[in-house]
User: Which sequence fits this backbone?
């Protein structure tokens, strides 16, 4: 039994799934501290001297990874080998399981530069509200291949979101689920859309991102109001001023991978600015350092960039692609500081949108920033589609 009693696997789960614990070797933390001690900051420039650029970094002295590790390990962790056409993938996931036969399985998928950490506030809230006997859901939060504790993509294959979708559908089958729901944003939203489109065991999908181009030739059903027009302006600004990192990931992933893997301050600057720019309220430095430390000690800065060739490279795919048009009823949560806060009228062209909720605060890392609001949306959406799961999803 794992922490808090929520770690008992479903009755039909594969015996290959094993409990696991996060335990970063002390020598890795000591090496990080040494690198930080001897790393030099860039000299002052016009850009890094602008107002708001002076937050103090005390990573090596004030940040306590072990404290965060203890909190991370208060949730049940697992690993499972998944035998795929591309080889064997050792997949890590956090699982909070119910003992109810009618519990609905929900898989939460993160993106870049996120991780399973984003969803821990939601899991923390639910484990305080319920017991294993009363929890109405199974909650599964995997690490994407190439991220943190999951295996990296193979060296001889251009790994794509389609591959991640296949692997995660296999994960849910190994857990014994005959039907399940997916919630995701960023890369996780793209993978989730593919799962919902291509794998019949996925019965429901909720998204909080939908990056796509203007559906100018589609029939627009809903009007675009003032708030959504403002969101479109943010979307346009991001396309012109905020996508440099994505183009680098898509066209020179090896180069930027070497840079980000060579020095922790480089990784902090590359990822930290995303947490600052893509959120509504600036997250604490502790939150940022927890995520960046996790990326550093798991050496995933280079192995996590695979999706960008598919979605930002030549002939890029998007949520608006006809091959992933959703016939199933899906839901969407709109947050104003998302990097692509697109109007409902656009999102409706990508499938059968039955739930749409617009919020006044929140940004790209919705599960981390506004966990209560996002979870309330998931539950409200689920109430409208609950019949698709049947009396026993396992």
Assistant:
């Amino acid at each position: 039994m794992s922490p808090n009693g929520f770690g008992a696997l479903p009755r039909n789960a594969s015996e290959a799934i094993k409990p696991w614990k996060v335990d970063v070797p002390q020598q890795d933390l000591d090496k990080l501290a040494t690198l930080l001690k001897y790393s030099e900051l860039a000299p002052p420039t016009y850009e890094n001297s602008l107002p708001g650029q002076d937050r103090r970094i005390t990573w090596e002295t004030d940040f306590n990874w072990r404290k965060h590790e203890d909190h991370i390990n208060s949730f049940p962790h697992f690993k499972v080998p998944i035998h795929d056409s591309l080889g064997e993938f050792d997949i890590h996931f956090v699982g909070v399981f119910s003992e109810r036969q009618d519990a609905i399985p929900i898989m939460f998928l993160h993106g870049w530069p996120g991780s399973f950490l984003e969803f821990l506030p939601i899991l923390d809230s639910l484990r305080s509200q319920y017991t294993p006997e009363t929890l109405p859901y199974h909650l599964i939060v995997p690490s994407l291949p190439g991220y943190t504790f999951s295996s990296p993509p193979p060296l001889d294959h251009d790994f794509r979101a389609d591959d991640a979708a296949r692997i995660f559908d296999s994960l849910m089958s190994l857990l014994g689920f005959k039907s399940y729901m997916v919630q995701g944003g960023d890369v996780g939203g793209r993978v989730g859309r593919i799962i919902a489109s291509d794998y019949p065991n996925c019965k429901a999908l909720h998204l909080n991102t939908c990056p796509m181009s203007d559906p100018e030739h589609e029939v627009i059903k809903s009007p675009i109001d003032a708030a959504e027009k403002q969101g479109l302006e943010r979307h346009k600004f991001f396309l012109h001023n905020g996508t440099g990192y994505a183009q680098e990931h898509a066209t020179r992933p090896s180069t930027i991978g070497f840079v980000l893997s060579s020095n922790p301050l480089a990784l902090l600057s590359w990822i930290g600015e995303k947490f600052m720019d893509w959120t509504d309220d600036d997250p604490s430095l502790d939150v940022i350092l927890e995520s960046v430390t996790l990326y550093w000690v798991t050496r995933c800065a280079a192995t996590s960039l695979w999706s960008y060739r598919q979605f930002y490279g030549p002939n890029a795919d998007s949520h608006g692609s006809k091959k992933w048009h959703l016939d199933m009823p899906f839901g969407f949560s709109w947050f104003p500081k998302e990097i692509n806060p697109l109007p409902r009228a656009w999102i409706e062209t990508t499938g059968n949108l039955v739930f749409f909720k617009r919020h006044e605060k929140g940004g790209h890392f919705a599960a981390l920033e506004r966990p209560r609001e996002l979870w309330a949306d998931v539950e409200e959406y689920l109430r409208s589609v609950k019949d698709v799961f049947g009396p026993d999803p396992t």
